[in-house]
Give the backbone structure.
Amino acid sequence: MNDVLILAIESSCDETSAAVIKNGCEQLSNVVASQVKSHMRFGGVVPEIASRHHVEQITQVIDEALVDANVTMHDIDAVAVTEGPGLVGALLIGITAAKALAFAHNKPLIPVNHMAGHIYASQLQEPLQFPLMALLVSGGHTELVYMPEDNVFNIIGETRDDAVGEAYDKVGRILNLSYPGGKAIDELAHKGQDTMNLPRAMIKEDNFDFSFSGLKSAVINAVHNAKQKGDTIEPENLAASFQASVIDTLVHKTVKAIQTYPVKQFVLAGGVAANKGLRHTLQKTLNEQFPNIPLTIPPFQLCGDNAAMIGAAAYSVYQRGHFAQLDLNASPGLSLGEDE
Ligand code: KG4
Ligand code: ZN
């Protein structure tokens, strides 16, 4: 079979990205323009600012991805783009660029679910084996996803309230860390001890769901109580206690999911997959308890949002011939499995 080259575009949140991916597994280029500095002073992503940056960056980022891969649009077999979930205005910039390229160069257009992209980021490292279980942890999602086969997604558990990345960023704000707080808390946590015994919500419940809003409130209350009493809580210990609670809960439900489903491979994915504590504990636990089930975690640069993962996920959609028409619209609330 001939090689398939996909030009992929991602603009769902605050990174403008384009990549060229060969056969869903080989990264020829991956250009990521991050806007994080522009949103930092607001303590979160401002949708209008995100859209404006995407408009400014998109053409240049796509050109750079083609140049880096040493190809032209003539060599490209299909154009893939994130259709959702994400910010509607941000998604539309990538979708409009993808549609314009697909139309002008007469190439098929592939709609990709952003969360599927996070899972398939691992395919850039090694082939995925099905049935597969994935733990998706990002700024907007916390989900356990069972994939009986390629491109089929069953969400078996999810957060009932805050996503884990969202909880990290809120606790980061309480600790006066700059946005997004996840990475900084991870670093602080390694210098402290789990002294606070924070709640492990839903850990004993017989399901695969999560809840992180109670943990966030427990952190806020602990900080307020300490302030009122004139006590000090070491930020390192607060970060370590918060992170220990998050990791305990995520790993506990992961083990339960692997015990329940016939899993051949486990994938950790999403921005929070960059968390060193989570990577380490999950690796150690799975090695001990399921030595025959390989765990794949993308390298740090592919955990956050990027177009390479969209190109990897697009390959199986391409093989199934699931193309979009030029009336493709953004789906800000798209769920995994919904777009099949
Ligand atoms: O996947 P992502 O880049 O964007 C979404 O699709 O949401 O995830 C971003 C999230 C942010 O909440 C950020 O704080 C978190 O990932 N994050 C981390 C770490 N690095 C990024 N959370 C915990 N530890 C980290 N090292
Ligand atoms: Zn993401």
